[in-house]
Every structure is written in C-alpha cells, then in structure tokens.
Amino acid sequence: MLSSMFNVQVPLPERGEVFLMNTFSDAQLLVSPDIASLVDTLAARTTPLSDDERETVATLAEHGFLVENRDEERRTLEAYFRELREKRDELRLTVLTTMQCNFACDYCIQGDHGDHNLFAQKMTAETAVRVAAWIDAKLDELRPATFGLTFFGGEPLLNLPAVYALAEHGWRATRERGITFSISIITNGLLLTPEVVDRLLPFGLSGVKITLDGDRDTHNRMRPLRGRQGTFDRIIENVRRVAPKVKVAIGGNFDADSVESFPALLDFLREQEFADRIARVNFKPVIRSTPAAPTGFIPLTEVGGDGRLLGGACMSVAGAGVSSACDSCHFVDEQMSHLREETVKHGFATADGVHMGPCEIHRNHAYTIGPDGAMYACPGFAGEASQAVGHIAGRAGAAHRAAAAAFDRLAAWKQCGDCAFVPVCAGGCSVAAHTELGDMHAPACHKTSFQSALVSLAHRAVEAC
Ligand code: SF4
Ligand code: SF4
User: Fold this and answer.
1) Which atom of ligand 2 is nearest to the CA of 443?
2) Structural domain tally of the chain?
3) Overall pTM surpassing 0.90 (yes/no)
4) Mean pLDDT for the stretch of residues 456-461
5) Does one domain contain both 315 and 212?
6) Beta carbons within 8 Å of 229's beta carbon, 6+ residues apart
C-alpha cells in the first residue's frame, strides 16, 4: 500500500501530534508523528510490520489515507467527477429575474452604470411562464429528490412578479411530484421586507443572502444608491425585521481599501439582537477589471465579443452563494484567511476555506437561466451572450452547441497533477480562469489559500478535542 495523493498534514509540535486529513474521503485524524511517518514511508518499507502497525495500517486504509495503487486512485477520482457531473438526484436552478439593479457599486458588472440599467434585461411574464414549463419538463426528466431554486440578478427583487410566479410554480410542481423544494434569494437587501419574506415562506423560502461591504461608512461608499445615498441603515433594518422569519447569510466583497473595515462590521453584527440568527458569514474579494490594475485589486481582462466583463458572481459552495475560490493574488489569499479567522472569532459560521468545491459548474444538472431565457453553465458566466449554452425554448444553434461542448470538456483539475487539493478545488473557478487567464480550461490556482485554511482547520480540530 502507499500514501494517498490526497493526504495533507499539519504538524502540531506544541501537542506532539500531526493533523492528518484526506481531502477525498474527508477523514481527519490527530496522530503521532510515528503514524504520520508510517503513512509516508509505507510503500518503501522493507521490514515486516508489527501487529500494532498492521492494525494502524488497516485503520488508515479504511479512512482512505492508504491506497492500493496510484492508477486505481486516479480512476476512482475520475469516477467521482463523472458521477458528480451526471448526478440526477438534485436539480439546482439559478434564475436571474433581471439584470437591473438599484445600486451603483462601482466594482459590479451588473450595476447601474452609464445606460446599463436602461437597457438591462428583465424577465417578462411570458418568459417566466416558459421557465415554469422548462422546470416541469426537467423535473419529469430527472425525477430528482430535491429541487433548489435560487433567485439572483442584477437585483432579483426588482422583478417580484417573476419571483412570485416561479416560487409558486416551483412549490406546486414539486408538491405534485413528491420532491423536496427550497428557495433562496441573493439580494442587496434593500427591498427585502417582511412582506416579501411572508409571501415566499409558504412556498419554501429557506434562506436569503445579503451583501454588506464593510462597516457602515465603507459599505455606504462601496454600495450606494444611484444618487450616491448610503444603503447600510436600511439594509440592517430589513435584516432586523426578517431575521426572526428566515435564515440570513451575510456576504461581503472586500478590496485593498475596504478590507480593514470588515472586523468593525463583524463587531457591529455581533452586537445586534439578530446576531444569533445569522446562519453564515462569508467575505470574498472584489474582482475588478482595469488595464493597469491598481494595487490590491484582482486584475481581470475584458472578455466576450461585446466587451462586457464576467464577475465570478459565484454562489456555489465554492461558492454556494457563499464564497468563491476566485481569490486570485497573494494579498487576497492572506486577507481571506485573516477575515475567516476574524469571522470565527466573532462567533459566526463561515466556510472553512478547505471544503470549497467542486462547484456547480461540474454538475450537469445545475442550471442558470438569464432574464431572456438564455441558459448558462454557472451564474458567473450569466449575461455573457457568447457563453450561453442554450435557451429554455430549446434553441441550440451552432454557437450554443460550441459553448456547451466547451463547458462539457471542463476538467482543469486534470492539469493539476498530484495536487492534494483536487477533490476540494477541482482546478479552481472557471470564471476566474476565463477572466484572468483567458482560458476557462486552465486551473485558477490558489493553493496557498487552501494551505493556510488547512492550518486553521487543524487548529480548530484541536480546540474541538
Ligand atoms: S465556475 Fe466560479 S463562478 Fe462558476 S460556480 Fe464555479 S466557482 Fe462559482
Ligand atoms: S488549482 Fe491549484 S490548488 Fe486547485 S487543484 Fe489545481 S493545483 Fe491544486
């Protein structure tokens, strides 16, 4: 037997132990340095094992730390990605009800800049009816156990008729078929009133995610209304009113100038009476495009025939609306770890930075539908016409077919060799690779971020003992 290529270790000299994790099986152990060394050296061992060692080897093999041979391990990994791609037990759908937004965040591709809002798409009632028919057909085709519907935009609540129509339809369609249904909304929070929540709760609303970009002053500078008025107080008031009714997750986007204000935001949130109702807090970096990126911003290059930018608006578990692996420079890797630590210190649940993926782009049955009915491989590519993989009406022209074939081939992780993080990273965010490297098939690597998150995970595991 030999050590799995997905083993990672964190020495804990102060305890005289080693934290051992296998990123594929997700097994985590605190072991003595002797056992950690046994894992590493077993393949080359020439002397017979003692009875104790044999027992230890059996336990380590059971948890995936030791494998029979490398070829078989690679085949198992390929089978895992294949199964993930073809999984039919869960239908995930993100619907962009509009690309319009009532905010004017200067880092956002979807915000109200220039005439963008005037011409930004909004889903019509007719298109919503066609999306509902598409949902019915997909539920009948897949017969999934669960259906998760996420509303996103733009600002999704600027098109409440489409939100209500699809929520009610999803509820009815899943009741008729005996499928578990849940709705989540990713919103800037300005229009998230108790009335909206009350209207959606009976149809399966299970969570809302709201964005706060730092403390009050910083957020007001980063996420103003079109007239530059601040939005922080109104959003907080909305959170206060809806938190007793529905799970609230807080997201936030930081850059070099705003990152220092996030601990103050965490202090503020901790003091609120709704603090214990906050289900999750996750911060991620702003992605900004500029020919000569100022210090601290992640450089993006323009993509797409119409010059529009992709924002890596990630909502998957790399993702899941939560955070993306789109943290693409050393500054970001460090700040991500720092903010994760601060978030935990303030008593909020957050992504651990290790269990980040594979994101939904690796699943065939995770769909994104734009306001005009165009379909995309993931929310980060939404709105980029050249990346549409189809249409709810079934129109699949040559461009759609070519885009779909490109997404079907996505497997950046195959270029990652023996990297131990492949099962939880899968080669990183394809949107980040597309925007930063000009090639969605290339790995978007942030290994240092995984490594520092692993050290934190090890220390938290020790504390929990
Ligand atoms: S490719 Fe990037 S933006 Fe798209 S779901 Fe994955 S992590 Fe999120
Ligand atoms: S992108 Fe980097 S961290 Fe992710 S699997 Fe590939 S080599 Fe590993």
Assistant:
1) 1
2) 2
3) no
4) 90
5) yes
6) none
